[in-house]
Amino acid sequence: MATSDELHTALQIRCQQFAHHQSPVQGDEAVSFVPPPPLPHLDAEVPATSRWTPERLRKAIETLPAAVEFPELARRAGDILERWHRRFPLNVWSRFVKFADSGTGRKLQMPKVLKEFNESAPVLARLIDWVEASRKAGEPPVAIIDLCSGFGFLAMFASELLPAEHVERIYLVDN
Ligand SMILES: C[S@@+](CC[C@H](N)C(=O)[O-])C[C@H]1O[C@@H](n2cnc3c(N)ncnc32)[C@H](O)[C@@H]1O
Fold it and tell me: Does ligand 1 come within 6 angstroms of the Cβ of 103?
């Protein structure tokens, strides 16, 4: 796939050619010439850094209803987000922190990942207890199926929160 630099260069060359052809053209050249598309602001569309730093997200997590009911889970979610922030490239991270497009998350202009954490915290808390009970009972590692997984935030948090040696696999299913 072409990089934005390569696209810029190609478009700039076409713009120069277009400028060159602005002078009246004759014969076949006038018929076959197609003007280039406008030059997009490729660099302006992708910010160099996200304003949603892990520190800012931690502060925002503290304001969530889930943080009142599940304070330890909320603290761990802050650690997880810090790891993801280091791990994922900016274009992926940007998808985590873009504003939620529905419900309370949208009204409060909450990053998508926080909206999903807030909504999935009760499920995550039960999942942690269930896996721990299974481990204590000496059962084999569990398989978890995340039905209607969407982007997959719930499964992603689960994969970070649960003991890896007691989870055989997490399956994500969406239509
Ligand atoms: C609100 S989203 C879930 C978000 C998810 N909790 C997360 O962490 O990203 C609901 C999802 O259910 C999926 N869905 C709805 N009906 C479905 C069906 N019948 N079978 C499979 N997936 C379905 C939709 O495609 C959508 O992605």
Answer: no
Helix (H, G, I), strand (E, B) or coil at 28: helix
Contacts 24+ apart (CB under 8 A), 137-144: 140/168, 141/165, 141/166, 141/167, 141/168, 142/166, 142/167, 142/168, 143/167, 143/168, 143/169, 143/170, 143/171, 144/169, 144/170, 144/171
- What confidence tens digit (pLDDT) does each residue in 7-64 have? 444 445 444 544 554 544 455 554 455 555 545 444 444 445 788 999 999 999 999 9
Residue 109's domain comprises 54-139
Shared domain for 83 and 133, answered yes or no, is yes
Q: Specify whether 84 is located in the same domain as 122.
A: yes
- Residue 148 beta carbon below 6 angstroms from any ligand 1 atom: yes
